[in-house]
Amino acid sequence: MNDRLPRAPGRLIALEGIDGCGKSTQAERLARATGALLTFEPGDTALGHRIRQLVLGSSPGEGPVPRAEALLLAADRAQHLAEVVAPALEAGRWVVSDRFSGSTLAYQGWGHGLDGSGLRDVVDWAATGRWPDLSVLVEVPLELAAERMARSRPDRLEALGDDFRARVADGFRRLAAEDPAGWLVVDGSGPVDQVAVAIAQGVRHRLGWPGPAVG
Predict the structure, then answer these.
(1) pTM given for the model
(2) Cα radius of gyration rounded to whole Å, the chain
């Protein structure tokens, strides 16, 4: 039985990167510029909100073990795709998601050291084979990300420290290097407007540009 989603007329763009890279701001900018639906992971469904609390809301050492964490995030993605992403794509809308499958591979794969091939299979299955049309890696030096994160209270994953963050950053770089056609790497260390222009230009070059905003 093949339960993979058929290719929808809309386009899915994921903004990826380590915490503190500025991807959330850039996701908002890109969604506004393209008229896309803006969404995020984990947590943009009722079930996802509860999963987010389980994964990120507890203290280090009190939350799920890495394998359980990966499975919870896969469940969030399955619900997110079914409730939010797939309906919009089927309607022909573009969707900009603040995190998608790349984050699971980078955080739970490289960050926690889970088996890459097995994790990729889980991610692929949870999303019924749906991967972003383009993943945008907003890359910044680790020191700059840490400086930005120092201004806010860290969640459970953010509190895992510099070594974990470095492994995650390396994971994102490897994902982008392994699939250059599916990833756009943008320097996120400059001014917000400058980064937004670079992302918009890259998206336009790779995917074209949608029509006027819908709704």
Answers:
(1) 0.91
(2) 16
